[in-house]
Write a structure and sequence with these properties.
alpha+beta, 2 domains, 4-stranded mixed β-sheet
Length: 148
Amino acid sequence: MIPCSMCGNNIALGTSVCPFCETRQAEGAVVQPVGFLHKTVNLEQGRPLVEAALNRLERELQTARHEGVRVLTLIHGYGSSGIGGAIRRESRRLLADLLHRGQLNLVIPGEEFRAKAGPVRDLLRRFPPLSANVHLNRGNRGITIVVL
């Protein structure tokens, strides 16, 4: 296993496109970007209950800090009700609380992850590789971008 050159998730050696962020990988060795590490975490994987998803979110935040990850893309889904699911709602509630307590630098809901939005424009200046993020400018309500 080697880290993806864009998101930092582990992928099999020889993989040409990352299954997490869909970034084409360079042939041969994959080099980790200097000073920037982005990771995608799918909180929906395995269809967990809300409590299990929130526990995983807290573990992933702790692991990301330990690994030096700067930006997380959280996939929490939108829910099948058409008004937003419980994992989305509770994840965003927890992230807002952590942001308020100063434990996170920035939280951007997927529907606001647009290159022309002020906070996103600043984020793209700080982390230029994010401009190739598959979720940018898509209005995806099933994700949230977190800057640690």
